[in-house]
Design brief:
It contains nine helices and eight strands. It is an alpha/beta fold. The protein has one domain (8-259): Aldolase class I (TIM Barrel, Alpha-Beta Barrel), CATH 3.20.20. Bound molecules: 2-phosphoglycolic acid.
Amino acid sequence: MTKRAKPLIVGNWKMNPATLSRAEKIVVDIQKGLHGRVGASEIVIAPPLPYVSDLKELAGAQKISFAAQDVSFAESGAYTGEVGISMLRSIGIKMVIVGHSERREGSETDEMVKAKLDRVIGNKLTAILCVGEKERDRFGDYFTTIESQLTAALADVSAQDLKHLVVAYEPVWAIGTGENATPEQAEEMRLFIHKVLSDMYGRAGSEMVKIVYGGSVHDDNAADLLKIGHVDGFLIGGASLDAKEFASIIKISDQYAKFA
Ligand code: PGA
């Protein structure tokens, strides 16, 4: 058996819930659902930014840290509506999701994803870089999609900076559809991503990077994705807004914290 790093469980709330009081209730209920747990998984929530400061007050007994769902490519300046990396850092954000497919769909290019990734890593926060194909074809072209998303985003990232990187494999067809990648598909893509990283940085560099899976993760498929897919954790949308289910996925993941 090989030693495994502790799973990383990230809840991506997207533009939900509609009010701060509902957001607070979810965090309180997650804490309740995890009461007494001595788990090892790392828990992160990426709520809408206006909620972060209030939610931080509630994230007590079970350590929960907070991520941002996006960041500006620019450091500061005249960019109405944007949020800069130093602002995120100053409110205690440790991780930033970069290149989520919902943003790529809204016209975020590989170049913009790369600029954002450089901004996050350059400021020593952790970037959760999302990659994923829109569909699976018979010829395996989706591997080329993943490789080009990775190489474009990581072009200027050095091996030393890999400690600030997490890759989230999120096939677009699995996001919010109820149709998750099978554990075997997740395992195959995890190995492929490791190979691309090994080609760029060598094996030691590649092994520093956690590879998580996202796309219709629920409490009934989490164990197999960890056990057979060998992913290092999850990026969870819908199920992270359901406190009971999110807590249950965390407890399942805790069982995979030590050994694969
Ligand atoms: P889902 O979303 O879990 O609702 O499929 C995942 C994501 O968008 O990160």
